[in-house]
Specification:
By secondary structure, the chain is of the alpha+beta class. The protein is 52% helix and 16% strand. It comes from Photobacterium chitinilyticum.
Amino acid sequence: MFKSVRGNAIKHVKARLLFIFSTIALISSFLVFFPFSMYLVLNEDNQIAQHLVSFKQIATKHYTLEQNDFAQLSPNVSAYYNQEALPDRIKKLIPLAENDITRHRSFFSDGFVVFHSSFTDLQGKQIPLYLTIDARAMEFGDDGWDVLLLISFALMIFLITFLRFSLRRVFDGLMSPITELSHQLQHNPNDNFAVSDRSIDELQTLTRHLNEYKQMKERLAKQELMFAKYASHELKTPIAIVLGAANLQGMKDDPVFQAKQRERILIAATNMHATVEVLLNIVKQENANEANAMRTVSENEISQDKFRTKLSDGVELRFLIEPDTQTNMPEPVLHMIIKNLVNNAIRFTPKGRITVHIDSNAVSVTDTGCGLIGNTETEHGLGLLIVRRLCQSYGWEFELRQNPEQGCTAELNLLPISN
């Protein structure tokens, strides 16, 4: 593929636009100037013909007085009363129509106009009459015509130049915000985009959307980094357990010891499998068809003893699961949500109480710890990012709020199904 010589940058577009409009202006000026000039020439030619016809009565009276074959009626008009007295250039046009105007090369310097008529003298004799005038005898003259053309041409050039200047100013005014945005995008990509308040509304809207997309991109990049850290953290522990148990198996041949290591490997692999499934559901959104499938929540599916081993002294953990509770979240998903929320509450509750309440429409974890501090997506644990994504996948709304008295509450509410 060959690159086009004419680029698509703003300066190239402006140059093409100015060239196109200058060409249009030049053609338009010519189309106006040429018909107008032709109208002046034709009108001048008609005026000369009418001027020539107006000398008929004068020529008739002159013949009555002098009865010559030729008479110079004015500096420009000549009268002939005999066909033989006509100059050779007029004789070549005979016969001429009577009472009619005959033009010969009337638009050229050697052209002339002839008016042929007749009249009756005092003796009753029919006398022919030929009135002639040069085609350019009464025009402005060569110097005047050149001046008129020069003035017209200068006016046309002035109008084209003024049009180019005006068009350039308008184009620069329209394109300057886009040029400014392009410069900011190339040289200051980390700053917010801004245009003048005088810019058109569409460009201001575009600027706002660019800033929103920039913030969204930064937020998504931050979330992806947090997601990667969380996935790494969740997978490192079971992998370490599997590797450690596998190495220990080679140290002893005791059947009881071997069975214990196999059990550790099996539990770690099962937990890792559940974690991978949940993470894949978040990334691939494969759970879209399962969002409406309900199941009954069992008290045994949540291992409360694992959480209690992490509690500080003086912290009480209570689980309240309503009877016949149903949810659309699979067991690994619900377990990961509870684990993340409880671990987050344990982290910020050095003493007091943590209460987990689960029913068909809501899941809440309430603590009496230090409450919300800093950015909830970073300070309160990477697990909250996983909770938010799982809630979005299964149609739940997640909220983390400060308690009126002490601590905070992490709550999930099932959104109503839209028809």
